[in-house]
Amino acid sequence: PPVIRREDYTPFAWMVPETRLHFDLGLEATRVVSTLTIARNSKADRSPTIRLNGDALELVSVCVDGEPTDSWSMDGDDLVLSLSGDVHQVEIATQIDPSANSQLMGLYGSNGMLCTQCEAEGFRRITFFPDRPDVLSTYSVRMEAVKAQFPILLCNGNKVEEGDLEDGRHFAEWHDPWPKPSYLFALVAGDLAANSSAFTTMSGREVELNVWVRAQKEGGSDLARTEHAMESLKKSMQWDEETFGREYDLDLYNIVAVSDFNMGAMENKGLNVFNTKYILADSDTATDADFDAVEGVIAHEYFHNWSGNRITCRDWFQLSLKEGFTVLRDQLFSQDMQGEAVKRIEDVRILRSAQFPEDSGPLAHPIRPDSYREISNFYTATVYNKGAEVIRMIRSMVGPQAFRAGCDLYFDRHDGEAATCEDFVRAMEDGAGIDLQQFRLWYSQAGTPKVDVALEHDGSTATLSLKQTVPATPGQPAKHPMPIPLKIALFDRESGQHGGEQLVVLDSSEKELRFEGFSRKPVLSINRGYTAPVAIQRSTPRDELVFLAAQDDDSFARYEAMQELVVSHLVAVLGDSLTDSEIDAGRASIVEAMRAILTDNALDDSMRGELMMLPSQTYLAEQMLAADPSRIHAEREALKAWVGTHLQQQFEELHDRATAVPATFDAASRGARKVKTQALVYLAAADPDGTAKRAFAQFNAAQNMTDRQGALMVLTGLDGVERTNALLDFYNRYQNNALVIDKWFVLQALSLHPNAMEHVKALAKHPDFTLRNPNRVRSLYMGFAGNPHAFHQADGEGYRILADLILALDPINPQTAARFVPPLGRWRRIEPGRAALMRAELERIAAAENLSRDTFEQVTRSLG
Ligand code: B3K
Ligand code: ZN
């Protein structure tokens, strides 16, 4: 497969001002007739042909200006038409089989309904079209189908007509007035039921809102589980008006939940299609975290209406233009809904466990990549989450008001266009009043910068020395220094106060900053609020970290101090550089800091729950050049047991207190649920038998999924009758609910149980397991790949299991298969014995015949 490069971009030779589509819908055979009005693009070179992309289409006929023509040819899957004039009408008939579409790209069947996924290049699996984001067209669509089978027919925009036809068939006609690229096209047909409501926009437009689910379902309809999604949609619409001044622009907003979906959701104009996972939620089947995820994804897709749809991307290299910006927008929204401190910590945790490994591995790429073979492989944590961090840095440097002015200018200047990241940066410069010349490096350089920090004290002067290095990444051996905004504060140890925060920007390799008026050496709090997505490297004395963990008035910095305390201890233990008494001292300071967290009455439980979490295995592995996953796992577990043993009484008291809090949706009750399960995690490590009983009691008394899943998570890691009974009870109770059965799979795949690998092998043969449903595949195998002691078993069996999965899944669903390659691609950062085994599995995959473009690209880059 060819490499596509950003520098090769050229505008398309034709414009397609109008697209008319006629669908005769059927599960096994769908006939599509498309009528395109095309005109030469005066801003592009003149071409004697037009290239219409296709993928696995059966061509039925081609007409130009009303006449059948044979002046066309196939170039691979693409249809190339010769055209002499400047304006033409092209009519193409194709036939497709949605039931055979297991890739879930284009038009496919799911549970008897028909739905589409077109981003990035799925529209070409529906009809021949210039399937690129810079070709904008207005769509008029007629859908026809058997009414009993597909009573509801949905498409983008507004419904203009509907009616009955002969032979039990019916039709609906839709028109979307907003020009859009083909990747935003969507249709859905099926037996659906809606939760309907309305929203009045700031200028008084009355918008009909519908959340659609499958009408008939064994075990009752899902309609009752759509209320939270609907409320989240209204909150998002309101918030975007208040915070960004953005208003919705159609009279209708439809959301449809489907159970077979490659990603989380899709922002198609006026017709979002969602994975059921991000729609269905009630307290019996969804955890508090699930509720938050629904709210966040609903918001994300809604916000795309401006950052993505009204202003779209010129080409796929600009993906972060819409994704990074929209992630930032949904993060800010969730901060406002759920509380800023905890949300920020959660987002940084995701960045560190998903994006940092990308940046330090063979798949590292800038947030605006320079090349790809398969664009689906670039829907990454780098483009999304680091992309959001990059824009957040601009916001931190200019402040929220100037940032808003920059956004206003961007929306105003580029409305209706297919824009670039460069357009966004320029609008920020002009609208927010900041020079971002050097800052543009954040768009072009990959790798997580490291910042070395030292603080010296002499007389009344404190001197802060900062030094940055941006590590080499594939294709980028040498880097330039980037501007790194760091919010800092200097604390006086005795009073526990600081003299105000300030933002320093490290914009050269090295910088020294002097601060006057310190009779004692201050305690440095740096990268407060996590202003820059960098790795801070410093050797802070333990007592200063304990001080910050207990006292810092920046919640993130407080969390960070606790993390650093644990990370520095575990890294030293793993480096075999500590004497026994040093190990004891390290553990003692962690116990001391944890005790302060458990007993601080001023702390709300939600924040307490964050502070209680140990740094993840992945984040710890990031700190080493060649990690031994088993040892990291063992030392992390040993520390957990140590802390659990030394604070057993405090954890039990916390668990008892939290258990007594009545189960509601308010923040206090949610916080109580969070610390309840956190306490069990430590207690399980310290006292497995006693905790099995305690967790089983929590499981049985649970009035909601948060408590039930938390208890089951702990129990799956333990041995005994409680484990067996809880797993059985959970399965029987929820066997008709696919999303909950996904939890049952993932908990066992992730479990601390020594036989987790055997459990995974057995679950792969379970009647409820299928390679056809991405949620189910991810539950079992992403869980497994994230389970260090099972996946990284020293004999390499875990690697073989994952490689076998990739090979089996690739012919069915290449996009999802390719997502399992990165865990194997980490081999360079793993100790040599395992690294060789991982590499061997990658080579075995690479040698397979007929590998998809998706998997081929990821495997070759990973071997690279
Ligand atoms: N824009 C979609 C991504 C779909 C990608 C499919 N390969 C989801 C989102 O970011 O909102
Ligand atoms: Zn998005």
TrEMBL record:
InterPro entries in the record: Aminopeptidase_N-like_N, Aminopeptidase_N-like_N_sf, PepN_Ig-like_sf, Peptidase_M1, Peptidase_M1_dom, Peptidase_M1_pepN, Peptidase_M1_pepN_C, Peptidase_M1_pepN_C_sf
Domain Aminopeptidase N-like N-terminal, by residue range, is 21-184
The protein depicted here goes by the name Aminopeptidase N
**GO MF term list:** alanyl aminopeptidase activity; metallopeptidase activity; zinc ion binding
Mind listing the GO biological process terms from this record?
Answer: proteolysis
Span of domain Peptidase M1 alanyl aminopeptidase C-terminal: 543-863
- Gene from which the chain derives: pepN
Signal peptide range in chain numbering: none
User: Catalysed reaction(s)?
Assistant: Release of an N-terminal amino acid, Xaa-|-Yaa- from a peptide, amide or arylamide. Xaa is preferably Ala, but may be most amino acids including Pro (slow action). When a terminal hydrophobic residue is followed by a prolyl residue, the two may be released as an intact Xaa-Pro dipeptide
Q: What EC number(s) has UniProt assigned to this enzyme? A: 3.4.11.2
